[in-house]
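Quick illustration, no need to memorize.
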Amino acid sequence: MKRRSFNSAVVAGLGAPALIGLSSPARSQARKPTTIRIAFSNAGTGGRPMSAGTYAANAALLGDIEKEFAADGIKIEYKYFIGAGPATNENFANGLIDFAFSHGDLPVLVGRSTGLKHKVILSAYRGGDVYLVGPASSTAKSVADLKGKTLSVQKGTSTQLQLYRVLNKFGSSEPEKDFRIISQIRDDQRASLATGNIAGCLDTPFGLEARGVAKRIVEVFDDPLITSPGTIWVGEAFEQAYPDIVQRVVTALVKRAHWSTLESNRETQYQLWTRSGRDTYIDNKQSWGRVKDLRTRINPLLDDYYVGGLVKAIEEAKKYRLLRREVKLDGWIERKYLNHALAELKLETYWPTQDANGKFIRT
C-alpha cells in the first residue's frame, strides 16, 4: 500500500479548529460543558478501568482528551462497562454519558432502534482475526464437533453476531438450535474454559494457550464478512449544544489514530494495551503481527465499508430476532467533524477506503 507522509511539525503548529455551527466569533466565548463523559463498552480484567486495542483506547491511556481541554477547565470522565454495549445504551438512556468511544454493531443498532439519539462521528475499529477456542483438553477439531454443546458469548454485544457468523461460515445456519449458547462476560468465559464448563467461545488464544487454558478450534483471518467496524458517537443533544467541543474531540482522536498507524509506534501500543490486563503482550504481538499496514485496522473513516457493516448487521440481527424494531440510517452518520479534522491535519487521502464488502478501493 502506498503511504502518505505526515508532517508532524505542521500538526504541532495548528491552532484550534474552526467552530462549527456557532455564531460566537471565538472559542473563548463559546458555551462549554463542565464535564465530558465518555464511555467504553468494555473494561479490563476484573473490571479494571482501561480499554485496549483501538486508537481511542490509546487516546484515553495517553490523556489526549484531558490535555485538549485542560486550559478550559473541563473535566474528562471515563466510564468502562463490563456490561459492554448494552450497558453503554442503558447509561446513555439515563443521561449519564455524552460520547461512546467504542460501541459494537449490534448494541449500537439496538440503541438506535429504541430511540436513543446520537450521531455517529467516527469509525472505532475494523478488521481483525477471529478465533473460536475450547478448553485445552477439548478433542474438537471443527465447529461440527461442537454441535449440541455449550458455547459462551456476552449476549447483546457485537461478539454475539460475530460468533453466529463464524458458526454460519462453518456450517451452522441456526446457531441457537445447533448449540446451547449461554451469556457470560469475558472473565467468566475464561474461567469456564479453565474448568471445562463450556465447549467454546471467541477469544484471543495465544496467552490462554501458553497457560494451558485453551486451544484453537477455528481461526478466521481478516474476513470482512465476519468482522464489522465499531462506532464512536456523540449524544445528539450534546452535539447540538457544543459543536466546537465535538470538533476538538474528533480532531484529537484523528491525531491519535494517525499516531497509532505508524510502524514506529507499534511496540509502544502493545505495551499500552497490556495495562488493561485483557490481552497479554503475547496476544498483542501475535494477533497484530500479521498486520503489515496498521492503517487497515486502525481507521476512523466512515466509508462504504462502515455503512455496509451496519447494513449487514441489521439484516443479521433481524434474522436472529435480536432487533425488535426497524433501524434507519438516515440522518444518523455525521461526517462533517471527521472531514474537518482530515482536512486540517492534511490526512484526506491517508487512510485506505473499502467498499461495502470490504474490498480495498483506495490504498
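DSSP finds 15 helices and twelve strands in the chain.
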